[in-house]
């Protein structure tokens, strides 16, 4: 009887140890894969852009925006043109032509839609999924009166 109990305890111990070992091995592989994905991602800031806001036929002020973007390192190496130039061009065009942008009340502007549209438009222009995500570093409005002070 004692041999039977000891055998059962031995089998349980071996089973638990093997399950614990497999869980640790799988977690290690998942962490390594996540780190490899992070290592292949570049993060770069763009220079600030000034977008004139025109109302009633005159410049009322400027929206000042600075963005950052993430891109895959391998895709970026294949790029023959700077990604920043296309991102800033699309950002300028979007902000300048957007009728929904109330420059006096920027807190109501949908930044999430802006960044998603920038990613989509830049990737279409580059004919490749170069940009993974666009982040907003700065987004302010300065009126014409504030500039002259």
Structure description:
This protein is α+β, with helices and mostly antiparallel strands. It has helices at 2-39, 73-78, 83-97, 111-126, 144-148; strands spanning 41-45, 49-55, 58-72, 131-143. A hairpin with a 2-residue loop joins strand 2 and strand 3 (58-72). Helix 3 packs across helix 4. Helix content is 54%, strand content 27%. It is elongated and about 100 Å long. Strands 1, 2, 3 and 4 form a four-stranded antiparallel β-sheet that branches. The mean pLDDT is 85.
**Major sheet attributes:** 4 strands, antiparallel
Number of helices: 5
Kindly state the number of beta strands. Answer: 4
Percent in helix: 40-55%
Write down the Rg.
27 Å
- Give the class from helix and strand content and strand pairing: alpha+beta
Helix and strand pattern? HEEEHHHEH
pLDDT averaged over residues: 85
Distance linking N and C termini = 95 Å
Q: Report the portion of residues in β strands.
A: 25-35%
Q: Give the overall form.
A: elongated
In terms of per-residue confidence, which ranges show pLDDT below 50 for 5 or more consecutive residues?
Answer: none
């Amino acid at each position: 009887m004692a041999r039977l109990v000891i055998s059962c305890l031995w089998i349980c111990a071996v089973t638990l140890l093997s399950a614990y070992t497999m869980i640790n091995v799988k977690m290690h592989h998942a962490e390594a894969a996540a780190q490899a994905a992070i290592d292949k991602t570049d993060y770069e800031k763009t220079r600030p852009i000034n977008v004139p806001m025109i109302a009633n036929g005159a410049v009322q002020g400027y929206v000042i925006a600075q963005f950052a973007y993430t891109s895959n390192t391998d895709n970026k190496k294949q790029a023959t043109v700077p990604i920043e130039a296309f991102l800033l061009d699309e950002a300028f065009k979007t902000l300048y032509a957007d009728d929904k942008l109330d420059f006096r009340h920027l807190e109501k502007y949908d930044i999430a839609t802006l960044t998603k549209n920038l990613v989509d438009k830049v990737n279409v222009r580059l004919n490749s999924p170069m940009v993974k995500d666009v982040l907003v570093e700065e987004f302010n409005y300065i009126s014409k009166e504030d500039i002259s002070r």
